[in-house]
């Protein structure tokens, strides 16, 4: 339809009335929003006679409420200037989409490059964010979304935490990645396409893994060498998060080598984030990515040697998807516990006295528990330390060492509690595993600071 | 001149010719005899005769050499012309007496004969098919002479074996065979059978003539142009049909392959779905397990909170008790303090009242002694606030007579004096009395 037009009027004001005749008192045919386009057919008494193809009706609009362009090469510089201005103007996303569509139509094929699709994607992405704000009083939002949809911009809605989130499907960003574009445009595209909050929570493990593999491939298409540090930090964070998830998923499917590679990559990407250059808005993402990496970092750690004497843990497959952890001493089976989680053999640790044996068990993508087997007067007991007493979502707990007498365990916990990542460095009594000392920083607890093991300090991401 | 006259002149001319010929013969004989005598009896004549004889012998040797070469792969049959006996000669030199011996050389190598008369459909001797159509066939006959029988058959064996022996044989056999088949069969379908049948038939015939048949090959079959076009289109149709058959077979195979693929895909998808289902189940179980592990913590947390709440309750109770006691003590202290204050106040009021009453008594005494003191005091009090007072003149009354409760009809001068000092003091200082009332409230 657009291809047959020569002169279009782009509506620039919200709630512009389309009147039946060229009079202010005439009946309203429709209410137009920013960015809508109309075919210009004439002019009368300060009104433009137009035809609205979307609603299939003719009408009149005030001249000052629209901008008229001829869709040929002569209009390209004007349209480009407006698109450039609107690109960073919040609230004018629908108008920006309208202008970009007009520019795509008017510009010759040689001038249609990735920057146009970058603009289109930026507008759509911002509109989706605007529509996903919790308490919005924006009355024009519905109109703007309809305008965007009329230009073929698709949004998907995702049910999350009792509310609906609107996500852009990323068509324009895919084109940016295919066509090239500047490093920053590619980064914007990759980040928008791999947003974690736009992953449908209803996806099954198989689809989720395929999606994560695709996300990793998209993130690999951006070259960080040409980006400023604060922007490349974002890319490293996203990569760390995706690879940490992939590490769990590959390991879950029995592909230990791929899992180890992904885990190593996630740790490396997290290490490449320069904290001093981290933008304020990225700090929560940094903490969340660190927790994810911490939850699955055992995938790439070397497996310790089996002790020559004393109690040790043996892993064996149980029912489909189940791993059984057996605590043995010589040939005697002391305890057995099976789990549907992923037991990391690299995380098996024993206290110097041999009275405590612990192992990390990852039950979800970002949720790793610590299983503690401890010998008491009436035999061996097994306890589970969870990252936090909340809904299992994001968190990990890891053993940081023992006090020299073996009566206390040092653990580091990090979990997402009420939307904030909360670290805890605790000293637990061996018998009850109840915290004796809790601190938000390791240096706030003298015991922790003194006895945490060098091995833990070298490998953990909690001390970042 | 008529015929009779001509006939009468013939005998005359014949006799004249005869006379001339006899004369010439005699002259020639005379010259030969004289030449012979010259050769024999004169030295020069003998030398010339010897020379001529030598030249004659050399010419004879050159024209029919006495020695001949039999090449390898050949066999020579030397026939004595006087006795008629043949002799077989193998490779090497052979002696031939001129005009006595005659040598026939035969090659024992394989030879190929290709008759060219019947290669074209419009040639001199084309073959005929069962439909009566002319067709040309290129035939190659590979043969060799039987070395064992060459000597015996040499007398009867022609020089050109191919043309003299083979061509007639194959011509007859082939014509018969081709006449039994259709062009289509000759051209494409029965070619091999025909070739085989011909070979089998020709071989014994040629063996009888001392020729060993190696093979018969049918080459290009030349058809009449119209027929060729028709046949080609027919063959093309056939080919198409064949192609279609193969295409259908291929499609059939593809369909089967697709079916198998679909089946495999179905199984794969079923397996994948099953695996995905299993993975989902495992993930759900893992999540439930995590939840199960958290519950004790929650319980512990709740218990701890309960204990904390109890501790807080006890603490608050103790605190409240202490506070209430403290307040009680404070209240008691305060009541005592208030009582003391009240007593002090009462004492103060009493003392003040006493002092005031004494003061009033003193004032009353003073006023009773000096009645104009009231006016003076009033005027003093008003003097700084009122500069001009415009009021209707009250006949004989004081300007502020109302305030003082004087009757309007009588002037101050004629009015009675205040009844008592207490009245006067109460009216002169209304604010003071009001103030005391307020204080008491």
UniProtKB/TrEMBL annotation, chain A:
Species this protein is from: Hyalangium rubrum
Protein name in the entry: Lipoprotein
From TrEMBL, chain B:
Compartments in which it is found: Membrane
Top-level division of the source organism's lineage: Bacteria
InterPro entries noted in UniProt: Band_7, Band_7/SPFH_dom_sf
Membrane topology: Single-pass membrane protein
Transmembrane regions: none
SUPFAM superfamilies per UniProt: Band 7/SPFH domain
Major localization listed first in the record, in broad terms: membrane
Band domain residues: 70-237
Ranges annotated as biased composition (Polar residues): 419-441
Disordered: region residues: 409-441
Classification via PANTHER family: MODULATOR OF FTSH PROTEASE HFLC
Protein name: SPFH domain-containing protein
């Amino acid at each position: 339809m657009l291809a047959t037009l020569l002169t279009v009027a782009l509506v620039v004001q919200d709630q512009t009335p389309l009147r039946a005749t060229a009079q202010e008192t005439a009946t309203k045919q429709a209410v137009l929003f920013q960015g809508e386009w109309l075919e210009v057919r004439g002019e009368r008494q300060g009104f433009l006679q137009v035809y609205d193809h979307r609603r299939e009706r003719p009408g009149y609009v005030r001249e000052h409420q629209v901008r008229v362009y001829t869709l040929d090469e002569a209009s390209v510089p004007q349209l480009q200037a407006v698109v450039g201005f609107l690109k960073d103007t919040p609230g004018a996303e629908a108008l920006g989409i309208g202008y970009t569509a007009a520019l795509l139509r008017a510009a010759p094929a040689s001038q249609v490059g990735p920057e146009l699709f970058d603009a289109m994607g930026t507008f759509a992405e911002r509109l989706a964010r605007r529509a996903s704000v919790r308490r919005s009083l924006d009355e024009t939002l519905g109109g703007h979304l309809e305008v965007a949809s009329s230009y073929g911009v698709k949004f998907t809605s995702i049910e999350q935490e009792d509310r609906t989130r609107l996500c852009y499907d990323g068509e324009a960003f895919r084109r940016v990645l295919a066509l090239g574009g500047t490093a920053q445009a590619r980064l914007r595209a990759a980040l928008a396409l791999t947003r974690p909050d736009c992953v449908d929570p209803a996806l099954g493990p198989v689809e989720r893994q395929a999606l994560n593999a695709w996300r990793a491939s998209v993130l690999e298409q951006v070259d960080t060498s040409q980006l400023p540090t604060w922007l490349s930090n974002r890319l490293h964070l996203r990569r760390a998060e995706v690879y940490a998830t992939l590490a769990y998923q590959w390991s879950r499917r029995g592909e230990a080598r791929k899992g180890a590679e992904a885990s190593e990559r996630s740790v490396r990407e997290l290490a490449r984030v320069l904290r001093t250059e981290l933008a304020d808005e990225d700090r929560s993402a940094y903490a969340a990515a660190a927790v994810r990496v911490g939850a699955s970092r055992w995938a790439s750690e070397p497996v310790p040697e089996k002790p020559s004497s004393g109690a040790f843990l043996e892993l064996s497959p149980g029912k489909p998807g189940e791993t059984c952890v057996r605590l043995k001493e010589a040939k005697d089976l002391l305890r057995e516990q099976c789990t549907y989680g992923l037991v990391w053999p690299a995380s098996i640790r024993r206290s110097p006295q041999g009275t405590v044996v612990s192992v990390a068990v990852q039950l979800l993508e970002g949720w790793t528990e610590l299983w503690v087997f401890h010998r008491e007067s009436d035999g061996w007991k097994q306890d589970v330390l969870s990252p936090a007493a909340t809904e299992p979502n994001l968190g990990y707990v890891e053993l940081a060492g023992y006090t020299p007498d073996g009566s206390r365990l040092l653990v580091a916990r990090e979990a997402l509690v009420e939307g904030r990542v909360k670290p805890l460095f605790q000293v637990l009594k061996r018998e009850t595993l109840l915290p004796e000392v809790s601190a938000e920083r390791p240096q706030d607890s003298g015991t922790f600071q003194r006895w945490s093991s060098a091995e833990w300090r070298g490998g953990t991401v909690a001390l970042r | 001149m008529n015929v009779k006259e001509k006939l009468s002149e013939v005998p005359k001319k014949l006799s004249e010719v005869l006379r001339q010929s006899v004369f010439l013969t005699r002259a020639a004989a005379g010259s030969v005899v004289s030449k012979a005598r010259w050769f024999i009896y004169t030295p020069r004549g003998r030398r010339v005769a010897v020379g001529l004889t030598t030249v004659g012998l050399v010419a004879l040797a050159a024209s029919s050499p006495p020695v001949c070469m039999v090449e390898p792969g050949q066999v020579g049959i030397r026939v004595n012309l006087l006795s008629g006996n043949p002799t077989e000669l193998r490779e090497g030199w052979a002696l031939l007496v001129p005009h006595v011996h005659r040598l026939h050389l035969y090659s024992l190598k394989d030879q190929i004969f290709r008759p060219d008369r019947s290669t074209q459909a419009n040639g001199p001797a084309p073959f005929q098919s069962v439909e009566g159509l002319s067709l040309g066939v290129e035939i190659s006959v590979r043969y060799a002479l039987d070395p064992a029988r060459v000597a015996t058959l040499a007398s009867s064996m022609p020089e050109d074996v191919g043309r003299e022996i083979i061509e007639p044989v194959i011509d007859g056999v082939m014509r018969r065979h081709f006449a039994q088949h259709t062009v289509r069969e000759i051209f494409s379908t029965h070619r091999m059978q025909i070739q085989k049948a011909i070979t089998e038939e020709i071989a014994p015939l040629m063996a009888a003539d001392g020729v060993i048949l190696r093979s018969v090959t049918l080459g290009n079959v030349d058809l009449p142009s119209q027929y060729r076009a028709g046949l080609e289109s027919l063959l093309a149709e056939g080919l198409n049909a064949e192609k279609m058959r193969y295409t259908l077979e291929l499609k059939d195979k593809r369909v089967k392959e697709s079916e198998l693929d679909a089946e495999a895909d179905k199984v794969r998808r079923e397996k994948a779905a099953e695996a995905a289902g299993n993975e989902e189940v495992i993930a759900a179980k893992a999540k439930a397990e995590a939840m199960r592990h958290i519950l004790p913590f929650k319980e512990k947390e709740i218990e701890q909170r309960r204990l904390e709440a109890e501790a807080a309750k006890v603490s608050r109770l103790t605190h409240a008790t202490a506070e209430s006691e403290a307040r009680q003590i404070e209240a008691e202290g305060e009541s005592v303090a208030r009582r003391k204050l009240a007593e002090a106040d009462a004492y103060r009021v009493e003392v003040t009242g006493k002092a005031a009453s004494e003061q009033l008594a003193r004032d009353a005494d003073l006023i009773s002694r000096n009645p104009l003191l009231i006016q003076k005091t009033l005027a003093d009090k008003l003097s700084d606030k009122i500069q001009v007072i415009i009021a209707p003149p009250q006949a004989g009354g004081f300007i502020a007579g109302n305030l003082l409760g004087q009757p309007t009809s009588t002037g101050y001068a004629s009015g009675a004096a205040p009844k008592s000092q207490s009245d006067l003091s109460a009216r002169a200082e209304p604010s003071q009395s009001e103030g005391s009332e307020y204080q008491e409230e």
